[in-house]
Write a structure and sequence with these properties.
Structural class: alpha/beta
Distance between the termini: 16 Å
Number of strands: 8
Oligomer: single chain
Shape: globular
Strand content: 5-15%
Order of helices and strands: EHEHEHEHHEHEHHEHHHEH
Largest sheet: 8 strands, parallel, barrel
């Protein structure tokens, strides 16, 4: 039986790293706002923001939310750094294990930090990983995948602007060299030159986690012209409220039905701390949830 649930994420409120600044709203305020808007789950954000252990379980259960997953960065391009990062992966898996149980378990969302060249010019506008380095890079991703499976979790890899897995061609290479499942992010794909609907169909057998995000290529083009990086692109609204960018959202929802997608659908609208008020962010996420409801999700 198909099970599909809709979640949101702390990045929609400008919460990326606990070291950035004091979060614009508390974890209790965020989970309550998302529950009130009709979301069924939340991504972890930076590990610790939602609490850990029993605090995490009590906070989410009290709001009626499940943990959808969470971002885990590993430096796959550097063998020594990757080995150091595995401790962080283990800590994240401990975090996921403490989450309330539900009919959809949380998915570790594997990803990589940005590269200087691609972060500076996102959207497939800077050189990627040399072909000779792909086998070792992919082997480390597979090692991380296997480590998650040993703990009872099935991870998904998140392609992302500014990283070595950014463009549709990069994703194809990743899928060819590993058996990792895919977290398809419509906004990152759109701004990297991909067609989210076509890619959903093409990669349907590997897509087990979906991030719904709108994108605006006009804002990307202006950011590139101004010489600003991915972070500033997010601050300028490169990821728009659903329906206000270029994503064909109705077609995405229809395609999820066509491929019989079962799993989490996570709404994200990446923004920077302080660029929008907390009230604006809460209103946007409520509007995003209503937009999906209007489309039958």
């Amino acid at each position: 039986m198909r099970v599909r649930k809709v979640a949101n994420a702390p990045v929609s409120f400008g919460v990326f790293e606990l070291s950035d600044a004091p979060p614009p709203l508390t974890a209790d305020e965020m989970v309550r706002a998302l529950a009130d808007a009709g979301y069924e789950g939340i991504d972890s954000g930076p590990i610790g923001y939602l609490g850990t252990g029993s605090e995490l379980a009590e906070r989410l259960s009290g709001a009626g939310l499940l943990l959808a997953g969470g971002w885990v960065d590993l430096r796959y391009h550097d063998a020594e750094a990757f080995e150091q990062d595995l401790a962080g992966l283990d800590a994240a898996l401990d975090f996921f294990a403490a989450a309330p149980e539900g009919d959809l378990p949380p998915r570790p969302t594997l990803a990589a930090p940005g590269t200087p060249e691609r972060f500076a010019r996102p959207g497939g506008n800077a050189p990627g990983l040399p072909a000779s380095e792909w086998p070792a890079y992919a082997a480390r991703i597979q090692q991380a995948v296997n480590r998650c499976r040993e703990r009872g979790f099935e991870p998904a890899y998140h392609h992302h602007l500014g990283t070595y897995v950014e463009t549709p061609d990069d994703v194809e290479r990743l899928l060819e060299l590993t058996d990792v499942e895919l977290c398809l992010d419509t906004g990152h794909l759109l701004l990297a030159g991909g067609d989210p609907v076509e890619c959903l169909r093409r990669w349907a057998s590997r897509v087990t986690h979906v991030h719904i995000k709108d994108g605006d290529n006009k804002i990307l083009a202006q950011a590139l012209a101004d010489g600003v990086d991915l972070r500033e692109l997010m601050g300028r609204g490169g990821f728009a409220r659903l329906g206000e960018g270029e994503l064909d959202l109705p077609a995405v929802i229809r395609t999820l039905d066509e491929i019989d997608y079962s799993g989490w659908v996570i709404v994200e609208q990446d923004t920077l701390p302080g660029r929008r008020t907390v009230a604006q962010n809460i209103a946007d996420q409520a509007a995003n949830r209503q937009k999906l409801k209007d489309l039958g999700l």
